Amino acid sequence: MISPTMQAALNAQIAKEFASSYLYLSMAAYFEASNLPGFGNWLRVQAEEERQHAMKFYNHLLDRGGKVQLAALPAPAVEWQSAMQAVEEVLKHEEYITASIYSLYETALAEKDYPTQVMLHWFIEEQVEEEKNAADILDNMKRIEAHETAILMLDHRLAKREAE
């Protein structure tokens, strides 16, 4: 049986994951309306991943005999000042979720909830990937904004170069 403290923390995380999905879906709509379907696709995929993350917590809670208590979700933003600002928000949001996962892990340690600790290892690794992906996209956008597209083109060409 899961402790009431751990149950409350996991329910709070479920809400954060669903809110993340909702935010990314809103961002996808923003990009698609801005005729940037590639960014829209990326964020649709992100939205689905976040929904799946929520369901992992949901299932874990049920598997442990806990009670799922879904919370109301805040409406996400629908406009951003620029594509750059939206991607900066993605990175900032992923950092927020990472901190939340770390806090959950601390709670699991304090509660001596070993099954939750094990489950959270996957999320800790996943957040490294999520932050890296968002940071990489943001870095490339900064290069483009600085008119360094020629560097990216050269980088692409150099990657194809073979030894003679």
Summarize the structure in words.
- The chain has 164 residues and is mostly helical.
- The chain has one domain (4-135): Up-down Bundle (Ferritin), CATH 1.20.1260.10.
- It is built from 5 helices and no strands.
- It has helices at residues 4-33, 37-63, 83-110, 114-145, 149-160.
- Helix 1 packs antiparallel against helix 3.
- The chain is elongated.
- The N and C termini lie far apart (64 Å).
- The model has no long low-confidence stretch (mean pLDDT 92).
Q: Report the uncertain regions.
A: none
Instruction: Return the domain count.
Output: 1
CATH architecture label: Up-down Bundle
Q: Biggest sheet: strands, sense, closure?
A: none
Query: In DSSP terms, counting alpha (H) and pi (I) runs of 4 or more, how many helices?
Result: 5
Distance between the termini: 64 Å
Rg measurement, Å: 19 Å
Given this structure, which CATH class is correct?
A: Mainly Alpha
| Name of the CATH homologous superfamily | Ferritin, core subunit, four-helix bundle
Order of helices and strands: HHHHH
Output the structural class. mainly alpha
Q: What is the overall silhouette?
A: elongated
Q: How many β-strand stretches?
A: 0
Query: What fold name stands as the CATH topology?
Result: Ferritin
Give the mean pLDDT.
92
The percentage of residues in β strands lies in under 5%
Helix content percent band: over 70%
